[in-house]
Design a protein that fits this description.
alpha+beta, 19% strand, 28 strands, 28% helix, seven-stranded antiparallel beta sheet
Length: 741
């Protein structure tokens, strides 16, 4: 016999729960036996805290460079074990001068020389120490090798590998522009070095033509780690870099979102543009004009160079306003630009130009032996990243030290979601179609979306339609509109009555208000305070809601099936009814909706199931077996003692960018294509996240924003994610009648 129906006029929320009687009794017994040692749990998860440092205010530029304090060193430079003979000056920057030096074996090096008089300030001294600590612990064939460091009474000397063919800037001064095939060759080696740095938690932050060098074989070397920092767990908030290469989030997120590894990806795009067009895309006479263009992504592809559309596509995608929109390094090499005319040599013709030795540079070809790899993926393989032991990166002492989030998992390999192949954050912004044509094949996205999330198969999201691109002889004007995307709904379950739709619309609006209030409060907080430390954040750990851990869409035949973190199995059938089968008791709920009651949930024991529902339960059993055998559980979250109510899925909506789930406790879950998942509960006030590498947490949304983002996930721009979620909620809140679905 069924239990009495429960009529829910305001959605099955905390006010009108559905509860299995037998499950309630079992939970009471279980609670009596449990003795949760919360103190021990806190001790295990306690993380070392460092005092946050408020970002420094911009100071006026000094008239004299610090490098001017560095006088020419003596002809013989000594350390405790070696003697170096000083040679010619190789150049100078704002902080140091560089000289050629030769040791007793006639091996040539570059000596970066810093006057002690220029590092009397604590901040400057720590900056130099940070550069030394980071550079000495890294080794890669596309990074300038750190040899040693020592000092005398006047200077500090950093002895580095000699790059006799000068910098990429030197090359561009002679060539003005270079061939696309040469730009490909350079980009590959540049990306290989950057991937190594990012793998070890280091962001360069000052990539530019002048900081990339060539050795005698024209192998590329990344140098100058003066602004480098470790960003493994925390984003950085210091405004730094060179104006023409600076990323928009560095300018706009100094006090809020911060910046991380994506600034190096941005710089690669700037450098590709500069190599093939002869100047950076945002170049202006005034720095303020450069920044204005950068923040609005205002640039064009000049007509005077016949550059391929594939190259323009790559540049356009890299120079995206939002960091998460940019391709990862692995994604870059899936672009069509690298699928043809890929050189094994460079074809620099620098007749008349001189190298560091004063010799005239002739037409230069690389031999087969100098080609270090057979293909792109060998060069960028993860084995190459791990081939050289690296010490734990020393943190820049002038930046806040990141919280050691993975303290208990120190032996595990580091994971950076945005730099795993196929892990691109693929959300397409609204772009003026008169200015630039969308080149993403959304049909291909739809074809592979079904299996990607569910079977945990890597997802490659780029498919270029060359026919849709404008004629390459016409300049393409690119100007992105911030915080706007096109939401393309693929499918949703049809609700046959207006009252349930109005209830769902109301819940969506409440969640939007909660998110907006959290963003506003966090913004006001960060204007006057440093971001919350990790320890402060974990003090606000909340109760996680019940979430969807598996799902499969067979709505064209049987229905939409899902499994919850409680292990309960539900199916939304094509007739709009739902069955929720409970995992730990032989009971189930049969749920329908109408215009008089909203949702009606009727409870049954399996031993007394109605004949009319036997077929439905067979389908439930089929889906349960299928999901258990074929789908991975996306989270370790499970039923807790505070989960007294049974929860079911009211509505699902699948968009090109994500899947959206609206549950009966008023929570909203968003599963993005990058395998990151976000759940907003308690009217948008609490955020639960499950990242692609299975990191989980539940905190007040406002505290997450005050912290600067999701802890341990510097590549996730939570502000941008929330803007997309808000648009989705607003989109669904407008569905208030059966005619508007």
């Amino acid at each position: 016999m069924p239990f009495d129906p429960i009529h829910d006029n305001f959605l099955n929320s905390n006010n009108s729960p559905i509860r299995s009687p037998e499950r309630v009794e079992r939970q009471k017994l279980k609670m009596d036996k449990e003795n949760v040692d919360t103190a021990a749990f806190k001790a295990q998860t306690a993380i070392k805290e460092n005092q946050p440092q408020t970002p420094q205010k911009n100071t006026k530029k000094k008239k004299e460079k610090l490098s001017a304090l560095c006088k020419t060193p003596p002809s013989i430079i000594r350390n405790s074990e070696r003697i170096f003979h000083r040679g010619i000056s190789l150049g100078e920057g704002g902080f140091a001068r560089c000289f050629e030096v030769t040791d007793s074996n006639d091996i040539r090096y570059a000596a970066k020389t810093v006057a002690k008089a220029s590092i009397v300030q604590d901040k400057t001294r720590k900056k130099l120490l940070s550069e030394i600590q980071i550079h000495r612990d890294i080794f890669h064939k596309n990074i300038v090798e750190f040899i040693e460091c020592f000092e005398d009474d006047i200077n500090v000397y950093i002895i580095l590998e000699m790059c006799s063919k000068g910098s990429l800037m030197d090359l561009m001064k002679v060539k003005k522009c270079i061939l696309e095939q040469d730009a490909k060759y350079i980009t590959i080696q540049l990306a290989a070095g950057i991937k190594y740095l990012h793998f070890h938690g280091i962001v360069h932050r000052d990539l530019k033509l002048g900081n990339v060098f060539f050795d005698e074989h024209y192998d590329l070397k990344i140098g100058d780690f003066g602004l480098a920092a470790t960003a493994e767990y925390n984003k950085k908030y210091t405004v730094c870099g060179t104006p023409n290469y600076i990323a928009p989030e560095v300018l706009t997120g100094a006090k809020t979102t911060g910046h991380s590894f994506e600034v190096d990806i941005w710089a690669i795009g700037i450098m590709i543009f500069a190599m093939v067009y002869g100047k950076p895309p945002f170049q202006c006479k005034n720095v303020s004009d450069i920044y204005k263009k950068v923040k609005s992504i205002d640039y064009s592809f000049p007509e005077n160079r016949n550059i391929s559309r594939d190259c323009q596509i790559l540049i356009r995608d890299i120079l995206s306003l939002h960091p998460q929109m940019r391709p990862s390094i692995d994604d870059i090499f899936d672009y069509p630009w690298f699928t043809y005319d890929f050189p094994k040599t460079v074809s620099f013709n620098l007749t008349g130009a001189k190298d560091i030795n004063g010799n005239v540079l002739e037409h230069k070809f690389l031999t087969e032996e100098s080609w270090k790899c057979e293909n792109l993926y060998n060069l960028l393989s993860n084995s190459d990243l791990k081939s050289v032991p690296i010490k734990k990166a020393i943190l820049p002492s002038y930046c806040p030290e990141p919280d050691e989030y993975y303290e208990d998992n120190a032996a595990l390999p580091r994971y950076f979601p945005i730099y795993q192949k196929y892990e691109r954050k693929d959300l397409h912004p609204v772009i003026n179609t008169k200015l630039v044509t969308d080149v993403t094949d959304l049909n291909r996205d739809q074809r592979i979306q079904d299996v990607s999330e569910q079977l945990d198969i890597p997802y490659n999201v780029l498919a270029v339609k060359n026919s849709q691109l404008p004629n390459p002889v016409s300049p393409i004007k690119v100007k992105q509109q911030p915080f706007e995307i096109t939401l393309t709904q693929i499918t949703t379950n049809k609700i046959n009555y207006n009252l349930p739709l109005k209830i769902l619309a109301s819940e969506c609006s409440l969640a939007v208000n909660g998110i907006m209030n959290a963003k506003k409060n966090a913004m006001h907080y960060l204007e006057k305070n440093a971001p919350l430390s990790y320890k402060q954040l974990v003090s606000s750990v909340g109760k996680h809601p019940i979430i969807v851990t598996k799902w499969v869409d067979y709505s064209n035949k049987h229905g939409f099936a899902y499994q919850l973190s409680t292990d309960d199995i539900g199916v939304i059938f094509s007739n709009a009814s739902t069955i929720l089968s409970l995992s730990d008791v032989p009971e189930f709920w049969y749920i329908t909706s109408d215009d008089s009651e909203g949702w009606t949930a009727t409870h049954y024991e399996e031993s007394n199931k109605p004949d009319g529902l036997k077929k439905h339960l067979e389908i439930i059993a089929f889906f349960s077996k299928y999901m258990n055998e074929n789908l991975n559980r996306v989270s370790k979250l499970k039923r807790e003692k505070y989960h007294e109510d049974d929860v079911f899925l009211r509505r699902y909506s699948r968009f090109n960018e994500f899947a959206m789930f609206e549950l009966s406790d008023g929570s909203f879950q968003f599963n993005f294509k990058d395998h990151n998942k976000y759940v907003l509960s308690q009217n948008g006030k609490v955020l639960t996240f499950v990242t692609a590498n299975k990191q989980e947490g539940t905190h007040k949304l406002e505290d997450v924003l005050k912290h600067g983002g999701i802890p341990g996930q510097p590549t996730i721009d939570i502000g941008f994610v929330l803007d997309i979620i808000i648009q989705a909620l607003q989109f669904k809140s407008r569905v208030q009648s059966t005619d508007s679905q």
